[in-house]
Write a structure and sequence with these properties.
This protein is an all-alpha fold. It folds into two domains: 33 residues; 34 residues. Helices cover 71% and strands 0% of the residues. The longest helix is centred in the last third of the chain and has 16 residues.
């Protein structure tokens, strides 16, 4: 596992620390979950999703990728 130093506003750090204590989780676990919810995933995970979508939809590679990009953008925008 890789270490990362992040600078947060004092109030954000305090809120994160309190949330971690309330939930019985580490601050790192909350941050990692938040990144995943924002669509930050390894390239291979995204590639696997595209391959699965293509296999299940019958779309060719270009159409499957266009659909994946469109849906990812839609998800990130909260629509």
């Amino acid at each position: 596992m890789t270490r990362l130093t992040v600078t947060l506003a004092d109030q954000t750090h305090r809120a994160l620390k309190e949330a971690a204590a309330r939930q019985g989780r580490s601050m790192a676990a909350i941050i990692e979950e938040s990144l995943e919810l924002r669509g930050i995933r390894p390239y291979e995970t995204a590639r696997e999703l595209v391959l699965e979508a293509r296999a299940n939809s019958g779309l060719d590679s270009d159409r499957a990728m266009a659909l994946a990009v469109r849906e990812t953008r839609r998800h990130r925008e909260g629509k």
